[in-house]
Amino acid sequence: MIPIIVTISGRVGSETPINCRHSGLRGVIVEGTAEQHFLKHNDAGSWIQDSALMLSMCKEVPWYLDDETGRVYVVGARGAVGFALTVGSEVFEESGRSIMLGVKRIEQVLPTGSSLTVVGEAVKDDIGTIRIQKPQKGPFYVSPKSIDQLVSNLGKWARWYKYASFGLTIFGVFLITKHAIHYYLERRRRWELRRRVLAAAAKRTGSDNEDSTLKAENGTGTNQDCVMPDLCVICLEQEYNAVFIQCRVKLEA
Question: Cα-flanking dihedrals φ and ψ of residue 234, to 5°?
Fold first, then answer.
């Protein structure tokens, strides 16, 4: 079955809201953290301030969006794109000790009455209650922005991806062209080297043939003299007399 993707905007509500302890707000999702701040020695022996997480908790109750025509429950909003909580309170409780500075408590909440826009899959349970949840494949947004703002932001991202893909295409063409030019120059260099080797070999063969002819006329030539010797890879004219040469250079001031 193809999922039904819908968009709804309304105000957050719940039949059993949570009363926040520190901020006094009423919300449907409440996250609280407590960080302990203290002093410690670093590697240099100096005192520095550091912190460690002591407590992290999250509470959530069933909640819905009300657009004055009906209610639609929202499930799994914390995993949606664009979802963010409001900082309800941020309190630092001093400990009065020299090393232990105190505890910082942060309370984040999704307050009742706040406006949200939800884009997701609409489903209906056995008793007829409609809810919006994350589809297996498709968008899932929970954001305080309106649907027009979401579409505008998606259009900006689409244009950015278009420009990025165009730039990557140009870069790929550059790499392919660079590789092709390098391959052509390498083939040309090898062809030129081969041409020089053949020319030097032909020159050396002609010289050896003349020497062999003179030796044959004098009766001192052998069949081995007619064999073309291996050439040096540096000068391409003389025979090589070594297979490996190691050079060391010593610089003195």
Answer: -95, -60
Are 120 and 6 within 8 A, CB to CB?
yes
DSSP 34: E
Contact at 8 Å (CB) between 104 and 92?
yes
**pLDDT per position as a tens digit, 230-252:** 666 666 566 666 666 665 656 56
* Residue whose C-alpha is closest to residue 47's, from 82, 98, 114, 122: 98
Residue type, 192: E
Which pLDDT score, from 0 to 100, does residue 31 have?
A: 92
What is the rounded CA–CA span in Å between residue 120 and residue 51? 39
Total-model pTM: 0.57
Residue with tokens 């926040």: 20
**DSSP secondary structure letters along 51-68:** EEEEEEEEEE---EEE-S
Confidence of residue 208 (pLDDT cuts 50, 70, 90): low
Which residues does 17 contact at the CB level (< 8 Å), separation at least 6? Answer: 26, 27, 28, 61, 112
DSSP-assigned beta bridge partners for residue 100: 38
